[in-house]
TrEMBL record:
It comes from the Bacteria. Gene3D superfamilies: D-Amino Acid Oxidase, subunit A, domain 2, FAD/NAD(P)-binding domain. InterPro entries: FAD-dep_OxRdtase, FAD/NAD-bd_sf. This is FAD-dependent oxidoreductase. PANTHER family: FAD DEPENDENT OXIDOREDUCTASE DOMAIN-CONTAINING PROTEIN, SARCOSINE DEHYDROGENASE-RELATED. SUPFAM superfamilies: FAD/NAD(P)-binding domain. Residues 28-379 form the FAD dependent oxidoreductase domain.
């Protein structure tokens, strides 16, 4: 029977629950949002003996962190050439290394704490059905080799068929350094580790009001309060009017996924022979992969929100266009979530006028970076030297007509859909 919870929720091994806040508690740092960013910030702070309280309005990993495709891809939403154009070669190289380090950070944490999250070095292939894209891919390959000293490959014909057995795509771009994982197992597993380090985690606890009293933040929920010297917003695509600066700067973009029934291993290894993470390079990206329990998940971005039956039908139709062999296959799970995007398509770490810290705007690329951003937030609070300051030096720009977000998002969807059709 079709289920509307996520495949990750249905298959998670980490089921610890946390109480809702019904008291007045104190901490050194209060963190709003229990996804990768919030839990990682809490983890790195607790390791330094800093007392943290995490408030999550639903359950740990309920937001994008427990809804994503589980692809820890190298790089950013911006291409290597865009990074170089914007920051110059040296900084772009540091940013590329930072993205690789973020994947390594997740792997290290998972291994150190034995978090069972099916983490695997899979590599990714970016795809296009437009042969002309081969030129862009080739330019990107040259830049990555020359400036970042990394080997990537442009794939066509047989080489492409060996990665994705479909006539739909004409050209691909293989980066072997990406990983796949079970995102909810990771974030829930890390939450357990963090709670064991002394963090107080509260679920079903929505931060509803924030006041500053002298040097302290007082965050109120329906039945409780937290007083703390520092506050972190880790709310990304779920940021709302409780912090107007984030509400103005983060564009929530919807993304949906379907998960097939379990498939025969033979069929899976025919369709996606090397078990890579796969996505196309159109504006309203489709992304797909095998799952640890032998299904294919197929996602698509920017269609509208909340979910409607027709969005899932569209995904099914696209899935079976890419893989006609899957016509008639059953869908066991379907779900959606919100990606936090910035105008610059680049994540931002900043401080609000009141002095609260935030890290938002991964623009669909936060599965691994959010862990290192949690570390950067911790380093900001501890006044330590940061491993990278670029995200702090990038201002969070207000979205024009932010009050009309719904209208903006649907107009942008129509516009990008048209562009994708023309390409
Ligand atoms: C469908 C989908 C697919 C994706 N696929 C990929 C992928 O394959 N690879 C990739 O790199 N990235 C992907 N992303 C993006 C990635 O998941 C995010 O960048 C990342 O999870 C952001 O983590 P976060 O902790 O900052 O935010 P989130 O995980 O969204 O967490 C924010 C949390 O804040 C909570 N919250 C908000 N307001 C309050 C409040 N007032 N009080 C208490 N709690 C509050 C929310 O409930 C939520 O749990 C995808 C996103 C989606 C939605």
């Amino acid at each position: 029977m079709l289920k509307t919870d996520t495949l990750w929720e249905a298959t998670t091994k980490y089921k610890r629950t946390y109480p809702f806040l019904s008291d007045h508690v104190t901490a050194d740092v209060v963190i709003i949002g229990g996804g990768f960013t919030g839990i990682a910030a809490s983890y790195y702070l607790q390791k330094q003996g800093v007392r943290t309280v995490v408030l999550e309005q639903h359950t740990i990993g309920w937001g994008a962190s427990g809804r994503n495709g589980g692809m820890m891809n190298t790089g950013y939403k911006l291409s290597a050439s865009a990074l170089i154009n914007r920051w110059g070669v040296d900084e772009a190289k540091r940013l590329d290394q930072y993205a690789l380090d973020s994947i390594q950070a997740v792997e290290r944490i998972a291994s150190e704490h034995q978090i069972d999250c099916s983490i695997r070095k899979s590599g990714h292939v970016a795809l296009s059905k437009n042969k002309k894209k081969a030129k862009d891919f080739e330019r990107e390959r040259e830049l990555i080799l020359k400036h970042f000293n990394r080997e990537v490959e442009v794939l066509t014909d047989d080489a492409l068929q060996q990665e994705v057995n479909s006539d739909f795509y004409q050209v691909g771009f293989l980066d072997p350094k990406s990983y796949g994982f079970h995102p909810l197992n990771y974030v829930r597993g890390l939450a357990e580790v963090t709670a064991d380090l002394g963090a107080e985690i509260y679920e079903q606890t929505k931060a509803m009001d924030i006041k500053k009293s002298g040097q302290f933040f007082i965050v109120s929920s329906e039945k409780g309060k937290v007083t703390a010297k520092e506050l972190i917003f880790a709310t990304d695509g779920y940021s709302n009017k409780i912090e107007p600066e984030l509400h103005k700067g983060v564009l929530p973009i919807s993304s949906f996924l379907v998960a097939t029934e379990k498939l025969d291993e033979q069929l899976l290894s025919t369709l996606i022979p090397n078990n890579r993470m796969l996505f196309d390079t159109i504006n309203l990206t489709n992304y797909f992969r095998q799952t640890p329990d032998s299904r294919i998940i197929f996602g698509g971005s920017g269609i509208g929100y909340p979910a409607k039956k027709k969005y899932f039908n569209e995904l099914y139709s696209k899935l079976t266009t890419v893989f006609p062999e899957l016509s008639g296959v059953s869908i066991d799970y379907q779900w959606g979530g919100l990606i936090g995007a910035t105008i610059d398509k680049f994540p931002v770490i900043g401080r609000t006028t009141q002095g609260a810290y935030y890290s938002v705007g991964y623009t669909g690329h936060g599965a691994s970076q959010s862990t290192l951003h949690g570390q950067l937030l911790a380093q900001c609070i501890l006044r330590e030297e940061r491993i990278n300051k670029t995200f702090e030096n990038t201002p969070l720009k207000s979205i024009p007509l932010y009050n009309q977000k719904k209208f903006l998002v649907s107009s942008a969807n129509l516009y990008f859909r048209l562009l994708d059709k023309l390409n």
